[in-house]
């Protein structure tokens, strides 16, 4: 339950500082996790980025204030963090479907995004199959790409990277090279860089030996891992498993996430197969 309390503390902090230019670093600090890890959890549980949540909440409050007060549009624009009335009007119309100048006489619907409250629901009809594995450090080889965390750019770029490696033969090469304990090709999320607000993402495989030309190496530290079975077609089955892990397993397991990259393990079977088997490896403490 400590994990749930920490996440709610971070959400409360966002709400208390909605009118300020808060950073992801300050938000994640409330939950005692890294900025990258907080953004990852938040996206999995809510299907939106932290920046999108803040934007939606600010525009929700702005609409309420416009409809209930006589404040000028320009004043409300500045209050909710927009440098120009034009930028505010564009964002407002995108969310609510009408310009802010029309709100006071508009009789239709405005779109309200309410404050998030974390709730733990008792579930158990659908079991989660996992095992705890302890491993010494090991090496993976593959390709690395850097993705910006601004405006959720990483969530757009990573699927495109997978499309590329599946088309250009890189994934086939990695399946052939695999000679480690983890069988398959890995998606590896490496933690957040504060300096440029970016993350490294690897498409790799466990491999003992010198890397072939064109591939790089990454050492995965020794850790205790919770290894979850994932059954079903991609990407739905993987997304569902991640949500279940963070919404059900972590709050009740007594484990916390350790500061080691998460691993998604993919097989070379048909990704659309209802019987496809994959894994999620999460470092725990």
From TrEMBL:
Keyword DNA-binding belongs to the record: yes
Keywords: DNA-binding, Transcription, Transcription regulation
Any one Gene Ontology molecular-function term assigned to this protein's record: DNA-binding transcription factor activity
Pfam family, one: Cass2
Domain HTH araC/xylS-type: 8-106
Name listed for the protein in its UniProt record: AraC family transcriptional regulator
Organism: Thermoflavimicrobium daqui
């Amino acid at each position: 339950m400590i994990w749930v309390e920490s996440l709610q503390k971070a959400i409360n902090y966002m709400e208390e500082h909605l009118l300020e230019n808060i950073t992801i670093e300050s938000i994640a600090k409330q939950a005692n996790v890294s900025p990258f890890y907080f953004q990852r959890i938040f996206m999995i549980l809510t299907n939106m980025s932290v920046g999108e949540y803040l934007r939606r909440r600010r525009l929700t409050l702005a609409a309420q204030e416009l409809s209930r007060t006589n404040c000028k549009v320009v004043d409300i624009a500045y209050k909710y963090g927009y440098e120009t009335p034009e930028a505010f009007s564009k964002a407002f119309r995108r969310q609510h479907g009408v310009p802010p100048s029309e709100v006071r006489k508009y009789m239709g619907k405005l779109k309200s995004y309410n404050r998030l409250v974390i709730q733990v629901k008792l579930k158990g009809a659908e079991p989660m199959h996992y095992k705890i594995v302890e491993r010494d450090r090991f090496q993976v080889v593959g390709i690395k790409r850097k993705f910006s965390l601004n405006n959720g750019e990483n969530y757009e770029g990573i699927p495109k990277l997978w499309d590329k490696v599946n088309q250009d033969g890189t994934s086939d090469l990695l399946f052939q090279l695999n000679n480690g304990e983890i069988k398959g090709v890995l998606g590896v999320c490496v933690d957040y860089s504060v300096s440029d607000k970016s993350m490294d993402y690897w498409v790799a495989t466990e491999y003992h030996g010198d890397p072939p030309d064109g591939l790089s190496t990454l050492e995965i530290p020794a850790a205790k891992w919770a290894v979850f079975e994932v059954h079903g077609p991609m990407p739905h089955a993987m997304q569902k498993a991640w949500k279940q892990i963070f919404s059900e397993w972590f709050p009740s397991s007594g484990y916390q996430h350790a500061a080691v990259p998460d691993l998604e393990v993919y097989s070379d079977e048909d990704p659309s197969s209802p019987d496809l088997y994959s894994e999620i490896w999460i470092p725990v403490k």
